[in-house]
Structures are given as structure tokens and as C-alpha cells.
Amino acid sequence: MRKASMRVLLVSVALLVASCSGAAGGGGGTSGDIGAAPAKDADLTLTVYSKFADREYREVTATLETIRKKFPNIKINHQGNQDDDKLTQSIQAGNPPDVAISFYTDNLGNWCHNGAFQDLQPYIDRDRTDVNVIPQAVRDYTSYQGKRCAMPLLADIFGFYYNKDMFAAAGLPGPPKTTDDIIEYSRKLTRFAPDGSIEVAGFLPSMPFYGNLAEVWAPSFGAKYLNAEGKSGLAGSKQWQELFEFQKKLVDFYGKEKLERFKAGLGDEYSPDNAFHKGKIAMMFDGEFRTAFLADQAPSVNYGTAPAPMSPSNASMYGGGLVTGTIIAIPKGVKNPGASWELIKHMTLDTDAIVQLSNGIKNMPTTADSITSPNLQVNEQFRTFLDIYSSGKLVAKPSTAIGDAHLKAVNDFAEKWIAGTETDLRAGLKKVDDQINDALAQK
């Protein structure tokens, strides 16, 4: 199913250390080579791997095929349900797709570092392509240490969802703007059964769960994964301590055992039984793509969207939030990289293609022209995410040579912290620092 579950660690990506080294270049991966653009009448098939499925697969396929407006004889073989693990295996086996699409930015640093994805800068320079039409934060998460080895296939912005009917019943005038508001509103919105169990949770603090991921919460507190030396320094960070102390206040309000029992009865994140769809939670973090799932699976829910609440110490960042997104790239070893680049350029820089795809799967358009296009379909809830995207306050996750290992380490700690198996916050974060820094040192 769709996206947002950035918590999955695809360990097989690390195997590329052995199979890919140095910068990959042209068709066979020779450094410095780039492929010529195909002739207008070129008759060829481009295989594309992605993890899209069902409704989104159909929308993406339809947009991929619009390349035929420029190259009428190019055919698209779009293979969905292909995760990063399968993509990695295809590169290792020397049989990669012509174009790779990944839901996750988390492994990009690894792919760039090991040459699994080719450097796109020579193509950009040759075609005099202006990538500055894409916001800086988005350009940042699609590159690694100055090397552009991917482009953004739309973006994801994380904000806040709230149930308007529940807010009205509780006498709440609008969405929370601070993390203190989240705690206050949760107390007013939560309903307990006569036996003390949770019937409706104002806000669910469990992490990782649904959109509750450390990387999604971090911008609200100004918490950073890496310090100026490029190392993990969570234990000495007031921001990370504040984040986890906030989390604990909510856990203590509900009670650990009650919270776990309640969470165990909630539906899958991307199914019609999602807890927000079913009115089991009143507020949540999530991406703009949730608007499409609500329209499709729970159209009767009366909900609003807002920027993510900020901690009082980080109030000036209200209106901003985490940006991440799907990435698209040329794998090492493709036979016709010039044609691959033409498809990537079309999907990521052609305004009509971007708008068509954004309208289809409700992800964020990524260029200045596509954001302001009159053909972009925007309702009240989706508008919130466009405003966040244009706020100048976007925060991207850092790309590292260890993929998403640093993200997983923090989310694993958060799970233990909520469960009460980690009770010393500073000592626990120091262990996370050591784990991440050891992994970084090995690279």
C-alpha cells in the first residue's frame, strides 16, 4: 500500500557496497559517459519499477505514457509492487529497470554513495535544465553530498489532521498550534469507557505508528539528526529531550497498558479501517496523500488540515514541516540511459505531466509552474499543504551513507521509551548515538 511507512529498513540495500563502487555513468556504468537522447521516432520500451499499486498504479502509468507526446514510439512497461529490495536485487544481478522509482528517500544516500544510481548532473548540464524551479529542501533530499542522483517525483508534506465534528462537540475553536495545545486538546477529546479503556483518543502518541515517526515529529521541536560534524548527537540535544518528554506526558495521560490495548484494536494505516477514518482518533500527523484516501475510503468524515503544531520553543517555525517524497532515478547498468533521462525529465519538469500526476494521486507538485497551474485541482484540505510547501520553512531528512539506519534507530528507541523498557532518556539516547556513529564510521 501507499507510502509514509518510512520505518521499514530495507537492509539489502547495504549489499550494494559490494556490488557497486564509485560513480556510475552511462549505459554500462562507465564513469563520465552519458547517453544520447533518443531520436524522435525511436522505437523502444522503457521498463519502470515502482511500488505503486491499485488506483495509484493506474494513475502513474497513465502519466508515464504521456512521454509518447514527445516520443510517439516509446512504450512503457510499468511494473508496480516493486520495492527497494527488488530494485536492489535487479541492480546487483545486472538486470536493472530503465527507470527506478522509490517511495523512500531514506536509502538515497546509500545508492548515491555506492553508485547504484547514476549521476544526473551531466544530463542537466547538457540540456541546460533549470532545477532551481524546485524548492531547495526538495533539491536537498534528492541529492547526496552534492551529487544529484535522483529527481523528485512529486513531494510529500506532513501536516496535521483533525476531526471537525469532534472539535465542535468539545468546544474547540480550531486546530492546535503548539504541542502544549495537543496535550490540552487530547484531554478534552479523549473518551474513556466505564471500565477505563480508551474509546476515542484525542491524539495517539505511539511511535512508530501511522504517521507518528520520529522524523515527522522532529521539525516541530527543531530536533536534528546530525550535528555540524556529521555525527549523531541526540543525547546532548535539548530538542530531542523535549520531544520525548512531550511524548511521555501523553503516554502517562492514557496509561501504557490502556494505550497498547487501544492501539492493538486499530485498523491498518492504508485500509478503510484507519483509526481516523473510523473516528477512533481525533487528531493525527499525516501527509497530503491522506486527503485522497479519505475521499476514496471515508468521504463522510468532516475533517480539517493545518500545519503541524510546534513546540513553544520553536514557535517561529509554525507553518512549515517535514518534506519528503517519491524519487526517480537511472540505475547503474541500464542500456539506454539517454532515453531513461528523457522520461525522468518529462515526469519531473514537464508542468502538464506533474499536474496530471498530482491530480491523480494527490501528492505535491514540485515546480513553481506546477504549483500555480490553473489545472491543479485544489480543495480546502489540500490547500494547507500547498501553503506549507511554499512557506520557506520546509525541513528534509538528512541523506546518509547508511541509508535509513539512523531513522530506524531513533524510532526503535521511541518504541522502547513508550513501552517503559527504556527509562533513562539521556542514557538511552546516548546508546542510539553510539549505534548510529558506529555505522557511519564503518562507511
How would you describe this protein?
With 443 residues, this protein is of the alpha/beta class. Helix content is 39%, strand content 13%. It has 2 domains: 11-155 and 325-372, D-Maltodextrin-Binding Protein, domain 2; 158-322 and 401-442, D-Maltodextrin-Binding Protein, domain 2. It has helices spanning 16-19, 54-64, 84-92, 108-114, 121-126, 136-141, 164-169, 179-189, 214-221, 238-254, 256-264, 290-297, 337-349, 351-361, 368-371, 380-389, 405-419, 425-442; strands spanning 44-49, 74-79, 99-102, 143-144, 147-148, 151-152, 156-163, 191-192, 198-203, 281-287, 303-306, 321-324, 327-329, 394-395. The strands form 3 sheets. Strands 7, 8, 9, 10, 11, 12 and 14 form a 7-stranded mixed β-sheet that branches. A 5-stranded mixed β-sheet has the order 2-1-3-13-6, covered by helices on one side. Strands 4-5 form a two-stranded antiparallel sheet. Strand 8 and strand 9 form a beta hairpin.
